[in-house]
Structure formats: structure tokens, C-alpha cells
Amino acid sequence: MKLFVFIAIVAVAAAQDKQPRPPQHREQFRVVYEWRTVDFEWESPGDRETSLNSSRYIPQNVLISGINFYKDNIYLTLPRMLDGVPATLAYIPANQNDTAPKLKPFPSWKDNTLGDCYALQFVQNIEIDRNGIMWILDNGRVGTLTQNPDAKCPPSIVLIDLKTGENKLERYPLPADVVNPSTTYLNDLVVDNRDGDFAYITDNSAVDPGIIVFRLSDKKSWKLRDTKSMSSVPEAALFRINGTTVNLPVNVDGIAMGPQFLTEDETVDRTVYYCPLSSYHIYAINASVLRNESLGLKGEGAIRPYVVDLGTKASQTDGMKMDSTGTLFFGLIGNSTIAEWNTTVDFRTGQRTIARDPNYIQWVDRFTFDDRGNLYVVVNRLFNFVKNQVSVEEVNYRILRSYTGLKSYVFGEDLMPTKPPHAAATAPTLAASLLVFALAHLLV
Ligand SMILES: *[C@@H]1O[C@H](CO)[C@@H](O)[C@H](O)[C@H]1NC(C)=O
Ligand SMILES: *[C@@H]1O[C@H](CO)[C@@H](O)[C@H](O)[C@H]1NC(C)=O
Ligand SMILES: *[C@@H]1O[C@H](CO)[C@@H](O)[C@H](O)[C@H]1NC(C)=O
Ligand SMILES: *[C@@H]1O[C@H](CO)[C@@H](O)[C@H](O)[C@H]1NC(C)=O
Ligand SMILES: *[C@@H]1O[C@H](CO)[C@@H](O)[C@H](O)[C@H]1NC(C)=O
Ligand SMILES: *[C@@H]1O[C@H](CO)[C@@H](O)[C@H](O)[C@H]1NC(C)=O
Ligand SMILES: *[C@@H]1O[C@H](CO)[C@@H](O)[C@H](O)[C@H]1NC(C)=O
């Protein structure tokens, strides 16, 4: 099939835009791929039919959610919310002429085997860091939208070093005392390649929402909780879109991370932004606070003094993505809108609508950048999926693209601390040894 694109979406200034337009021209979004249902490249011609017959593959139950990019491929996540999802992570070549390409399981069919704890079970989102490491959130529990969710395997961080081409899975199960396998919902993450590589992960568990921090250098993890900023609120739990109303009280969900900055005491920090799906607010916290393990042990409210409410937006937001210069991209679900915010400007006045279209922008889920300055968006009509009213006669999943000339936050500039990075952390140890010294004196 020949590649066709719709120049579908007209950028319009929305009523809430109070900021003058930035000088550079934003290219309009185009539809680059669209699917009614997701199909795969099967191992053999008979395999598809067998899978259909056995309900291992139920086409209308396969939802595209997350997106990421590396070299020549676009990686897509297919969370196993319902039965009949044969693979939970897959890819398509970035440059091809088919507008509804078949997905190839990644790394392989075998690595997507349901019930095999060496394989991927339930992947909502992934991130690919600047070193070519793919960070996969595998929630382990499948059938989250069914009557009987099944915690098949421990919730884990799974890493794949894409540079080697071997695509070996390295699995790090999260300890049950940090992450409850029967209630957790590992939703989205940002990766910070400083000081041993950290992932900040939103857990939108219905009973215990929080941000999980995973430090790769020693595989340690902890969870930070703040009900006020991480829980859904009733006034934002109703979604009205495309003539459908759906009640979805979903906790902390989207997460993004700003460029590095130098603090007054000359260490490097960055701002982490997050929002519950069912909320009109965006919150910010410094990464240095999330990295403080002792705050994780303190439980609910320990990080409250460090959380900043940046203000409200016109509607709810699922995924968000930051570019390397500190511009945040996010959807406004009830407004069929894609918006951007220059994070150096006040959030309340700095939001701008960059695309609005009631037909083509029906539930913005996730964003990614490629390495050529393009921003990609997954639109997936999630409201139809959760209401079990997906029509296989309509286009349900689209990938839109717009050229911005920029890259993902993972390629942001590295700042050098003028003080050694561990100065703050070693201070208490030094104080402690001085105390030991003093006690030793007393004992003499
Ligand atoms: C699938 O089911 C159809 C109809 O029941 C049957 O004709 C066909 O042989 C089955 N195919 C396989 C591969 O089992
Ligand atoms: C896409 O189509 C064009 C023109 O038909 C052709 O030259 C090109 O090789 C095709 N690209 C791929 C990746 O198939
Ligand atoms: C992060 O820390 C800096 C000081 O290093 C402070 O000025 C800023 O307000 C903090 N940001 C948040 C979101 O708390
Ligand atoms: C945006 O959507 C919300 C519902 O989520 C609605 O209340 C509001 O009026 C909309 N705003 C605009 C500018 O369309
Ligand atoms: C963001 O705002 C700052 C301060 O107004 C400005 O210097 C910068 O150029 C803006 N960035 C973009 C991408 O417009
Ligand atoms: C819902 O979206 C479809 C596809 O864009 C469109 O044809 C239909 O008119 C929309 N329905 C409503 C009620 O907005
Ligand atoms: C971590 O938080 C504790 C409060 O629980 C505080 O006393 C300590 O200074 C913080 N450590 C760092 C390195 O910021």
C-alpha cells in the first residue's frame, strides 16, 4: 500500500492561551499509521488461525498504549488488560509504506509467552535511555479489566540493551514489601541517567498510588506516597468524549522530567512532573527528593512539603513527554487537544494548544520523539476499550507525527556539579562518625 497521510489537524489557538505564540513554527500533526484492529506477523500462516480459534488472539482486545523509538524501529506496548493479547510488546519499522503495518513481537514470540515469568506479561509503558537501554515496566498481573485479574509474575523492571542486538531480557523483580504484586499498576516512567541510573515510576494502584524509585546501580527500590497529589479526584473522574461518557477514577499516571539545573549549593537536580489521570492539576517535585530513600520509609505525606501544585489545565491528561529543552507535551482528553508548555514559564498562563480535532484526537495516550526531531503521538480511543464498545469497523488506533526539531529529555544537556554529587549524602555519615569519635572520647 502506498503511504498516505492526512493533514488532518489544524492548529488553533485555544481560548485558554494567554501566552503569545513562540517564534518557531510548529508543523501540523499528520496521521502516519492507523489501525482498526492490531494484527501481527505470525510465526506461520496456521498460527494466526489457531490463535484465533483458541482465543489466544482476540483482535478487538488488543490496544496500542505506549510508544517509543530506537534507531529504525517504533516500539509499541499492548497491555494485557483483557484476554486475547498474544504479545504485550511489539515493534514496527519506522520507515515503511504500509499505513496499517502488522506488529512484530519484541524481542520474540517466546519472550511474550503468557504465564512464563522469564517472558513479558503486562507492559503498559517503556522508556529507552540515552545509552540505548530499554526500560520495560512489566506489571506481571494480566486481565486488569476483567473480573479476574491474575498476578502471574512479580512486577518487575526488565532491561534490554538494544545496542548489542542480542535483545536479552534482564529482569529485576520489585520486592513485595515495596510493590504489592496483587494491587500495583506500574504505569509510566522516566529515566535519569545520572549517578547510577534511576527510574521514577508512577504506580496508579487503586489502593496505594505512589511514585516508585528504582536505582539500577544497586537494584534498590522504594515508594513515595502523597494522597493529595497522587490520587484521582471525583470532579475529574468523568470523561466525555465522542458522545461517550465514562467514569474512570485513575490515580497518578503521566510523568515527565525537565532538564538538569544547578542548585544554589551547586549540585545538579531536575524537576519531575506528574499528574493523576483523573485530575485537572499538574504537580512537580525535585528528583533529589524522590531519590531520598528515607522519605520512602516514612510513608504517606513525607514528601508533601516538597510537592508543588503548578495549577490547573482545561481537561484530564494521560501521558506527557518532555523534550530536551524543557517543553512539555500533553493531551487534554475532554478537549480533543494536544498542548505544550514551556516549563520556564508559569504553567497557569504558559499552556498552548498545538492541535485540536474531535475526530482524530480521541484520547491521547503516549508520546515519543525519534532521532530526527519528530514527535509521535498514540491516540487510542481508550474510552471505547474500557466500555467494551470497540467497533472493528472503525479506526481505533492512530499514530500522529509532527516535526518539532527537538529530541527527548533523555538527550538533555549534562551539567557538571561544581560540588561532588555525594557531598549532601555523605554529610550525615561524616556527622555520625564525628559522633562516634565524641562517644569514644567519653568512653576513654
Ligand atoms: C479453526 O476453526 C475453524 C472453524 O471451527 C476450523 O474449520 C479450522 O480448521 C480451525 N483451524 C485450526 C488451525 O484449528
Ligand atoms: C515505499 O514505496 C516507494 C515508492 O513506491 C519505494 O521506492 C520504496 O522503496 C518503498 N519503501 C519501503 C520501505 O518499502
Ligand atoms: C527544586 O529545588 C530548587 C532549589 O534547588 C527550588 O528552587 C525549586 O523550587 C524546587 N522545585 C520544586 C518543584 O520543589
Ligand atoms: C475542555 O474539556 C473540559 C472537560 O474535560 C470542559 O469542561 C471544558 O469546557 C473544555 N474546554 C475547552 C476550552 O474546550
Ligand atoms: C521558553 O521560555 C524561555 C523564557 O521565556 C525562552 O527563553 C525560551 O526560548 C522558550 N523556549 C521555547 C522552546 O520557546
Ligand atoms: C465519533 O467519532 C467518529 C470517528 O471520528 C465520528 O464519525 C462520529 O461522528 C463521532 N461521534 C460523535 C457523537 O461525536
Ligand atoms: C532525606 O530526608 C531526610 C528527612 O527524612 C532529611 O533529613 C535528609 O537531609 C534528606 N537527605 C538528603 C540527602 O536530602
Automatic annotation (TrEMBL):
InterPro entries noted in UniProt: 6-blade_b-propeller_TolB-like (IPR011042), MRJP/yellow-related (IPR017996)
Protein name according to UniProt: Protein yellow-like
Cleavable signal peptide: 1-15
Annotated family: Belongs to the major royal jelly protein family.
GO CC term (a single one): extracellular region
Keywords, in A-Z order: Secreted, Signal
Subcellular locations according to the entry: Secreted
Taxonomic superkingdom: Eukaryota
This protein's record includes keyword Ribonucleoprotein: no
Gene that produces this protein: LOC112049058
Chief subcellular location: secreted
